[in-house]
Structure prediction request, 660 residues.
Amino acid sequence: MIPIVTALDAVSVYTPAVRVPIESLAEPLGLTDIQVRLFRRFHGLGEISLDPERSLADLLRAAIDGLGSLRGREHLVRYVVYGRAMPVVVPYPANPLHEVCREAGLGHALAFTVTHQSCAGGLLALESAGRLLEADPDPDALALVLTGEKAFTRDARLLPGTSIFGEGASAALVSTHGPRDRLLSFSCAQRGEFDTEFGESAERFQREYRPFLAEVIRDAVGAAGLALDDIALVLPHNVNVVTWQRLCLLMDFPVERVLLSNVPVNGHLFCSDAFANYATARERGLLREGDRYLVAAVGAGAGATFSAMVFQH
Amino acid sequence: MHVLRAERRVFPGPAVFLGDDARRAGVTEYFADLTGSARAPELSGQSYGEMAAALVAAAADGPVDLLVLAFSIHDMWPGRATATYLSHVCPGTPLSFAVCDQGSAAPFTALRLVRDRAPRRALVVAVEQGGLPYDSTATPPREHRGVALLCGDDAGHRVTDLRQFPDVAPKAVPELAARTIADLSAGHDRVRLVLGEALSAVWPEDPDRVPAGQPLTGVWWRLADALAEPGGLVVVGEYDRELRYLCLVGIEVR
Amino acid sequence: MTVPEAQVDAALRPRVVEVMTEVIARLSERDGPVTEDMDLADELGLSSSMGLELLLEVEERLGVQIDVEKMRTDELRTVGLLATFIAAHCRPA
Prediction:
């Protein structure tokens, strides 16, 4: 079921310049002093971007504007797939996705949102874009994958005891033939039984989270025909540091190969973490030609979606 | 890809979960933050979790590999990862997600994504509910309605072609729609049209007009009738005036 | 996880146990004594977030930093095992 080639050609990430330390979020989020200290000491959180002056459309616009390689190729973009964690982010019928597409000269593209997988929606958007391109008869057709969200309500600001969301957006250009980063595999598993309809299960979810994510990661690595040792770098979801430390112990994978440096800087950027971490890896020269790397995301609200992708750079 | 069956339901009352005070308080807070209004919202609409769960139970005849929920207007439980919930209540624990922000084009996109993934069995669930808990320029659907299409590779009603045209100006719609319908109909002796209200004027023969009031589910509701009558090609078409999508799909009825 | 005897700070360990038992009694709202053989999750009902709170208090009260990167929580099931780990894997803060 995996497309022959889905290639990530360019990625742009935007986070608002207005940054706040997590201590200043204690009052608005109803956090106790010890909860804030735990977030800083073990979860590795430090500050987040939060700009009440910038709308969701502003965030998406800024990410698209940063994608230099899109200029002059707008006409080739057939699909715009927006991966979003929060299903409803503006009053109906406002539609910031179509608003920014029209402004960016992408009004001719088929644009839609994929959601209901929480923070795993970004990887789903990427995979869906690849499938649309694969079925498209034009080999030059491109897709734009967008992510981006505002931390606008309590559910979109805090994962209690786990993480704090920050604001940001990303835009990624996807083709079927680009030379840069090729998708080798995608694995996705869902745990709808953790929906609140089935009662309180936070403790059980905490226990099962890491083993389940480890299984999905092993699945993606296996589907790419690789072993975990072959993975040069992991681009994590920025849920927190301690989860990844413990996951690495569970999988016997060196935590040094997990790019966690954006956790204290960004917090958890919903569906944008994968793209933000990719951009950081490129900036720091952490990916060499031929490297196989893994991208992981977990969407956890009440139900949960665990996703992992393996790419070759 | 084939459509194996279509199931549809009207949901006469508001969502059951709104009877739970804690959940009510949760969604009240969400809507207040969404709209920036301190006024208590009127929560009388439906939940896509409840609607889709009933449709899934009616339509799934065994394990399903993929479930795509399509909606335009949102429901009364705006923060819920409803498709993830549905992956648990649907036989086969399918990969599940939702497609939205695309007006009436969303169910067509859902069908297309299903076709491209070629699963053994898939469900497209199109839902719309008629309550908005704040002032809006939109006219909500008349009734809470949903349609589920069970799709798969077994013998059924074959999807012959699916076309989506973005950014079609209203004045260009009649010509493009007529041409595409002619294209899709080529080689078929008997063609039946199921066209949304915005398209009903574009074809010389008076189509089986879909009444206004159900912008997302209207044509799919009527498709369920069309599939019950054997033979011929059914062309389902819809145009979204706001987002300017023209979508058409040909389905060969067994 | 077994920890070689030599690596365990023998002077620190009793102080770790003392702080741990006090904090656990409070977090688990337990009246009776907390002993080293007790299972943190099953017997004392400590959730993973309470576990982190416990570590933070031990760190702050003893002025140390625990090397959590090496902590295999699934193997450190009892009060005593966790205390031994901490006494072998921490440095002055």
